[in-house]
Design a protein that fits this description.
Layout lengths: L1 H13 L4 H12 L6 H8 L5 H5 L3 H17 L6 H14 L4 H6 L2 H7 L1 H24 L1
Length: 139
């Protein structure tokens, strides 16, 4: 299932949605969230490329939002520290939560083709899935 969620996020990204939108749409499909996809697209619209300023990666923002949606709809009753756990996993996996730093590592070709961002988006979807499933199995 983790790989499927990663593929879904990468697929949405390939279709032209930004990193945040792609995570939200993949989470909606994976967890059967009762959210209008157009609503998710709109709330994620301005989180591309670190809120267009190079700050926090939109994939991480989307994953944090998706975590809240899954928590509510599936009654997981997650503690607030779960957001920090997701952030820490993201930083461990990718080296930073800052879009500017992440994109700098991608090189010219990676930036032009957005393949680096696509990989981060897919990887973030996988991190989200792993965290949710670990919490589920411990409850």
């Amino acid at each position: 299932m983790k790989e499927l969620m990663e593929e879904k996020a990468a697929g949405w990204f390939t279709k032209g949605y930004n990193c945040c939108q792609s995570i939200l749409l993949a989470a909606r499909e994976t967890y059967a969230l009762e959210m209008n996809p157009d609503f998710l697209i709109e709330i994620g619209r301005f989180f591309r490329e670190g809120m267009a300023s190079g700050c926090t990666c939109g994939a991480l923002v989307g994953a944090e939002m998706a975590l809240g949606l899954v928590n509510k709809e599936q009654g997981l009753n997650l503690p607030p520290e779960t957001a920090g756990a997701l952030h820490d996993r993201f930083v461990k996996a990718f080296g930073s939560s800052c879009c500017r730093v992440l994109r700098k590592k991608q090189g010219v070709i990676g930036k032009m083709t957005k393949q680096g961002c696509k990989k981060i988006t897919a990887g973030t979807a996988g991190l989200l899935y792993e965290l949710i499933e670990e919490i589920r199995s411990s409850n």
